[in-house]
Amino acid sequence: MKGLFAGVPPLLAYLGTASGFAHWLDSGEFVAAAADFGISHPPGHPLASIVLGTANLLPIGALSFRVAVLCAVLLAVAAVALFFAFETSLSVSDAIRPSLRFPLALAATWWVAGSQGWWFQAVRPEVYALQASLLCIAMERLLRVSITGQEGPQGDVRPLYQAALALGLALANHHFIALLAIVPSLWLLLGIWKTWGWRPFAWSTGFVSAGLMTYLYLPLRALQDPFLNLGDPSSPGRFVWVISAQAFQKSISPEAVSPFGETLADVLIATARDLHVVTLAVALLGAYFMLRVSSSRKFGLFWLTLWLVYVLGRATLGFVRGNPDAIAYFMVSYASLAIFAVFAIGVLLSALAEAVPGKSKLAPALGALLALAASFQFLRSLDGSTLASFADTDVFDDGLRRSLPARSIVLVHNPQTIFRYWGGEAEELNRPDVTMIPLPLLSYPKLVDRYVRDEPELTPLLRSYVLDGTLSAPELQSLAALRPVYVEMDVRVTQELMDLLVPEHLYHRVLTADTTETDEARAMHEHAAFWGDVYQRIGHPIDSHTEVQLIWRHYTDSLYFASIGDTNAALRTVSAGLALNPHPRELRMLQEALKNASAGERIDVTPFTIR
Fold first, then answer.
1. pLDDT digits (tens, 9 = 90+) for 530-544
2. Number of Cβ within a 10 Å radius of residue 536
3. Residue range of the domain that includes 108
4. Which of 385, 419, 439 marks a domain boundary?
5. Do 286 and 343 fall within a single domain?
């Protein structure tokens, strides 16, 4: 019954705000992986592919909605496990009355589960709801066995094995986030060793290994050539390449990472904004209380180290402001702050009960009021978390995929375009004739070979791109003579190549010899009308992540127009981007360059591109 109180309200909130369409970022990719149990980007996320793939069994809605529903259920499970972990942590000290444990644990659970950092992982297809569920189960079981260990060797050690299995499965989903959880566990594992010795740890190693066996899914599934097969881990070398995430390790440049102090400040600011600065202040007092009392000290050290490890770990990797994937890295660190805060409140309410012994129900009543007040967190986070009316990606799908001419070839630069394309096509399977080439991912093992095998006419273009790192204008035009060819505009598109393109849909089409000036003029007119239709269908207010996509597309479009000398169109697209956000430096610099140019003057956009 307690678990229902903890889990049902968050579940209802999550289900009521789940996305009917896959969101931006990696959501489309995980829908594509779920479509036929495919293999996503390194480290492959084998457990997520299996679990999210079961969404196909749900009888309601599109696949993207079903995957979001599954994520909502998984995060509600995480909330229940977190509740019992909180209740266990509050029971270790006599400084908190037993009658306060339930309402305080409930308040902490709702405050965390209602935060935007948690909520947003429950309403979109992603791996983080599954990860939070497994880690919260592992934490709750580890805390439980630590409590029973106080009874001596006759206590129940089985929760340790359950925690080990949950950890092993978490390592098979997102190994970096799971590895961070091991460090704070050492405070509790030391006491378990003193009570039961080494034998439980030997058994636990077996349970962790059982969870890690999930990685065998990758080579077995890769041999079946699923719709999504990134890295093709069907051989030992490619298997290691995928699970070690070498593609991401090579892509991280030390120069591109902000200073540690700056990223740490970003993490702390995001935490304070999500949980409220008052929570942080009260949590500081609770940490002091928990570490001061001998019976709760090792549990306090566990929670404190948990918070430090995840905050410092995310700050070390770098933190992208406004990116929910970055916030997901320290979801469990929110639990640390919540337990410290309610521990402090529990000590104070227990002291109040001692001071007024004639009013024994006062402290529990105040605890119940606190739990009810904690539900306000859901209202506080609703606007930033709900995707109930989100349909922007479906609007984009028309220009990205559905409206393209037969047998089109699309060369894509933006990873979010790639994932959105895969997600939409995996659900609908209505454009098998269109070939989308993900340029940033061509370094993935066997990917180029797969395209060349299926469509040999792509061989010259892909060979030149792999060798030179840029698109070849002659090869593009040769291919355009056979099939419609589109390039997604990007800062990596050279000015020379821009002369061969004309805007069409959400891409730029490669010109052929029979293209006339009338065709080009019509394309320019249709481009403006197309964007007017997109804005009308998206409506207001515009989702913050959709806004980022719009700004980027307006920026790259303005580079194209400036390059070919269409100053008016360039100013129009720059203004559209600045209307969404007046602060991007590149947009403002380009606007100044355009204002100083005469009508029809071709602007040198080389300073705005990447060679």
1. 888 999 999 888 999
2. 9
3. 2-212+267-385
4. 385
5. yes
CA-CA distances (angstroms) from residue 436 to 231, 411, 449, 469, 550?
17, 6, 14, 18, 21
pLDDT at 259: 82
pLDDT tops 70 at residue 75: yes
Q: Is residue 195 part of a domain?
A: yes
Q: How far is CA 422 from CA 88, 130, 203, 209, in A?
A: 44, 22, 42, 33
**Does 600 reside within a domain?**
yes
Residue (of 283, 268, 259) closest to 336 by Cα position: 283
- By three-state DSSP, how is residue 510 classified? strand
Cβ contact 75:132 at 8 Å: yes
Q: Is the domain of 207 the same as that of 320? A: yes
Give the three-state DSSP class for 236. helix
537 in the same domain as 455 = yes
Q: Are residues 350 and 324 in the same domain?
A: yes
Instruction: Look at residues 338, 359, 385 and tell me which one is the last residue of a structural domain.
Output: 385
pLDDT in tens, 322-345: 788 888 888 999 999 999 999 999
**b (16+ CB within 10 A) / e for 507-524:** bbbbbeeeeeeeeeeebe
Residue 85 lies in a domain: yes
Burial letters 79-116, b for 16+ CB under 10 A, else e: bbbbbbbbbbbbbbbebbbebbbbbbbbbbbbbbbbbb
Strand 507-510 and strand 485-487: the pairing is: antiparallel
Residues whose CB is less than 8 angstroms from the CB of residue 592 and which lie 6 or more positions away in sequence, other chains included = none
410 within 8 A of 437, measured Cβ to Cβ:
yes
How far apart CA 563 and CA 197 sit, in angstroms, is 72
Structure tokens at 80: 């229940």
The amino acid occupying position 147 is I
How far, in Å, are 74, 133, 374, 563 from residue 386 at the CA level? Answer: 17, 20, 19, 40
Beta carbons of 545 and 581 less than 8 angstroms apart: no
485 & 574 share domain: yes
Is the pLDDT reported for residue 591 higher than 80? yes
Residue type, 26: D
What CA–CA distance (Å, rounded) separates 571 from 593?
Answer: 10
Average pLDDT, the chain: 90
Dihedral in degrees, nearest 10, Cα atoms 140, 143, 148, 151: -170
